[in-house]
Task: structure prediction
Amino acid sequence: MVYAGRRGLSELLSIDKGGDDQSKQGKSKRAPLEPGTVSPPRPVPVTIPRPPYAASGRMPDWDARPQRHDAAGLEKMRAACRLAAQVLDHAGTLVRPGVTTDEIDEAVHDMIIAAGAYPSPLNYGGFPKSVCTSVNECICHGIPDSRPLEEGDIVNIDVTVYLNGYHGDTSRMFAVGQISDSATRLCTATTEALMAGIQACGPGVRFASIGNAIQKVADSYKFSLSRTFVGHGVGTVFHAYPHILHHRNNEPGRMEPGMTFTIEPMLCEGSAKEKFWSDQWTAVTIDGGLSAQQEHTLLITDSGVEILTVSQ
Ligand code: MF3
Ligand code: CO
Ligand code: CO
Result:
């Protein structure tokens, strides 16, 4: 992963500073995240098909039907997910000190419309930009703005595209220059947590197995998990049931072949409780501790699970 930088996984796992000195030091050196200026929404050519909420800016109710697809629908779903992954790869190449999240938004927006797709976040419940960029203590739903990325920041870029009537949704963490060992450890744990959640999936398996697998990883690192933000069915709609909880739970429901949904755990070094900025989107940890997230869109197959948000 990008944030793993120069260290191998085994080296990272062996780091044990008790978490405290390092993260306190990191926290005190790091200025709290503050809102920048948000540029106007970027235009989408009229020729590009839009999701139903694009015009109204209303937040659609979550669709009650699980997202399942026939062969033709699945091909479109695969294409949307592949595009989302390609856009995320490209966005990641832009991450460096001095680049604003608004510049990342512009690049993401332009690449999505060049592919004939619509950037799903744009005007979803009034969200003003085309991608979510969540820096440091931002848990999720950060709005791209004029703030330049700073050496030592971690940033989640969350790309969702709407292509040929289907949404593909994926995010991961990027390091801005050199980051602290504690930030690296948080990002590594987040990848491990997502992968454990994915490995728990398969036909007939309880959805609750996902959160149980993720919780084990978070516990082993002594990181907390956001319970507010959940994974979701995704397909012809951006968000559908079932809720995919990322913490230990006992919810009913089992996975069936053909279903598509996301897993997107958010791990926090301190409290996983959030407060919202006045923009009503940006969710930051109440204690200012770092938060990291990673997300894939998945397909349940007859024999297991497939990650759809891969770039090739
Ligand atoms: N991509 C986010 C998710 O994983 C949703 C973003 S909604 C937005 O579900 F409006 F904030 F963009
Ligand atoms: Co999602
Ligand atoms: Co997402």
